[in-house]
Design goal:
Elements lengths: L8 H31 L14 H14 L7 H23 L1 E2 L9 E10 L2 E10 H28 L5
Helix pairs in contact: 1-2, 1-3, 1-4, 2-3, 3-4
């Protein structure tokens, strides 16, 4: 018999783990964004201020690596890393900014997340179904991406002689 998902300690821990893992992506991307913004001639054509939202930072960085000569040598590695992070951002965003539907009966282990999609002329509700296993799997992938991004941020800082 299907019943609504109940928020459990296991779910809360899974959300907390993903939140902490995401910082491992967000902070290195902030560092990379800051380096590109302050050290690359031409970066101001893409943003007039250092971008703060994740999607804007990722888009800004991809544009810089794709187009600016001072960082062209990093393009083959940087763009796929950033794209990988962008691919995981949706799952994280749904989980962190969504609400658990604890009214709709679901198969055991299924979690329905709902969030508001803000559009210029209306709001709509998105539904996403996920399991604790999928949350854990995505969290692990986020941690791996964060480790690569962190290493890359150090390499970029060394390239621009910000760190020895």
């Amino acid at each position: 018999m299907e019943k609504p998902f109940e928020i459990t300690e296991e779910f809360i821990i899974a959300v907390g783990n993903m939140t902490l893992a995401w910082a491992q992506v967000e902070i290195p991307l902030d560092i990379i964004t800051g380096i590109l913004f302050t050290r690359c001639d031409g970066a101001l054509q893409y943003e007039k201020q250092i971008p703060r939202a994740f999607d804007r930072k990722a888009t800004f960085c991809k544009k810089c690596f794709n187009n600016l000569p001072p960082v062209q040598l990093f393009k083959p590695h940087a763009v796929p890393i950033i794209q990988n992070c962008l691919d995981m951002a949706d799952t994280r965003h749904r989980l962190i900014h969504g609400i658990v539907d604890n009214f709709t009966p679901v198969p055991d282990g299924t979690i329905i997340l709902r969030r508001i999609l803000y559009e210029p002329d209306r709001h709509s509700i998105e539904e996403h179904r996920i399991t604790l296993f999928e949350i854990a799997k995505t969290t692990q992938a986020i941690l791996e991406c964060g480790a690569v991004l962190n290493t890359f941020s150090v390499l970029l800082a060394k390239h621009f002689r910000i760190v020895p």
